[in-house]
Amino acid sequence: MTTDAAPAPQDDAAAGVDALSYEQAREELVTTVRTLEAGNLTLEDSLRLWERGEALADRCQAWLDGAKDRLEKARAARDEQSDD
What we know:
rod-shaped, 0% strand, single chain, 2 helices, mainly alpha
């Protein structure tokens, strides 16, 4: 007896995400969320979009974390200069 198994997660869900700017990733994430919220997709398409959305959210968070690190370094450098 054979059964149809659920497809494996799409390995390409994150394809190209690493090359996106924060603004590009955020805009695509907003569009992805709106599409998912509309609810007019098949389960497979919903899962694929969810995976893409997770990759986009991770990219946005990486940009924000990087910006925070840059600000902290700039503040530390400023404080170090003012101590001299």
